[in-house]
């Protein structure tokens, strides 16, 4: 039902792209407001993604002066809109008796928190990469200049002509592996995996970190290497060629927000680098991008770090 609520935005995810683009431009302005003074970008990124999610779910963004982003009371209030929010789709099913109130609240909280924490954490890790690998930044910017220019904003459709930028997004998902153990699943029947018996009702975790750092499939897996997702002609590898790469899971229980996450990440990266250069506070001592040194929890979270932004010329 939640998936149906997301699908009503259309196969092209046009509305999600519009919501994302508006909030990303606000985030860029927050970055620019620092001038060339070093600042920690994490809060601005979190606000950006939180506002995209709240607009998607209930049709209104979080207030600029909101002090408690962990509070989710705003998502329980329904509002009259031109198009249904995900919340309203679930509310309709509640009124029809298909869902309990607790199930509606639970699904909404899962979508909200998962949608904010995973994407914002991945983007923070990408900022760390940008200040450590100016060559990656320049290659993405060259592709932006060639395909988009500076006369309009990036769109999600641009990705088809921007294989390096798409590959860079895939590589940060692989390199940082935001959800190292995915989320717990449960077996629905007695089964076996690799010769091991797994009884019905067993909690099962997918070790995404091991998948994404397997030397059998990835050359130098602990290095950030965009080219691993490109073929010899510089074209993006197809999904079936990306061995051992499952950042969103697989099958019926794959991540509900995969398409939405890809829209937001692609637009954030291309919109940001279209306008700004991202630099370290100290070029001789950039913050460490090694994800094994992040704070490990539900997500693999980068610690505090500062960046400097400069308008591109």
Automatic annotation (TrEMBL):
SUPFAM superfamilies: Cytochrome P450 (SSF48264). Its cofactor is heme. The keyword Metal-binding applies. GO terms for molecular function: heme binding; iron ion binding; monooxygenase activity; oxidoreductase activity, acting on paired donors, with incorporation or reduction of molecular oxygen. This is Steroid 17-alpha-hydroxylase/17,20 lyase. It comes from Owenia fusiformis. Belongs to the cytochrome P450 family. PROSITE patterns: CYTOCHROME_P450. InterPro entries: Cyt_P450 (IPR001128), Cyt_P450_CS (IPR017972), Cyt_P450_E_grp-I (IPR002401), Cyt_P450_sf (IPR036396), Cytochrome_P450_fam2 (IPR050182). Keywords: Heme, Iron, Metal-binding, Monooxygenase, Oxidoreductase. PANTHER family: CYTOCHROME P450 508A4-RELATED.
């Amino acid at each position: 039902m939640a998936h149906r609520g997301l699908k009503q935005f259309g196969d092209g995810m046009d509305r999600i792209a519009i919501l994302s683009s508006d909030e990303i431009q606000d985030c860029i302005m927050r970055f620019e407001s620092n001038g060339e003074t070093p600042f920690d970008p994490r809060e601005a990124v979190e606000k950006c993604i939180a506002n995209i999610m709240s607009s998607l779910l209930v049709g209104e963004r979080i207030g600029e002066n909101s002090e408690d982003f962990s509070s989710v009371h705003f998502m329980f209030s329904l509002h009259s809109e031109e198009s249904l929010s995900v919340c309203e789709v679930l509310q309709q099913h509640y009124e029809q008796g298909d869902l309990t109130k607790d199930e509606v609240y639970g699904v909404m909280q899962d979508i909200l928190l998962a949608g904010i924490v995973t994407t914002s954490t991945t983007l923070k890790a990408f900022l760390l990469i940008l200040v450590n690998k100016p060559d990656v930044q320049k290659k993405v910017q060259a592709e932006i200049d060639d395909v988009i220019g500076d006369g309009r904003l990036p769109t999600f459709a641009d990705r088809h002509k921007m294989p390096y930028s798409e590959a860079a997004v895939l590589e940060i998902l692989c390199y940082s592996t935001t959800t190292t153990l995915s989320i717990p699943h449960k077996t629905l029947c007695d089964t076996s995996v690799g010769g091991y018996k797994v009884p019905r009702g067993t909690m099962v975790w997918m070790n995404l970190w091991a998948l994404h750092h397997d030397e059998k499939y990835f050359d130098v897996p602990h290095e950030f290497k965009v080219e691993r997702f490109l073929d010899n002609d510089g074209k993006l590898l197809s999904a079936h060629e990306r061995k051992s790469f499952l950042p969103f899971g697989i099958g019926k229980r794959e991540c509900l927000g995969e398409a939405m996450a890809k829209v937001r990440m692609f637009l954030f990266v291309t919109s940001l680098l279209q306008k700004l250069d991202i630099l370290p506070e100290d070029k001789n001592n950039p913050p460490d991008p090694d994800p094994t040194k992040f704070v490990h929890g539900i997500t693999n979270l980068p610690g505090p770090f500062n960046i400097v932004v400069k308008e591109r010329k």
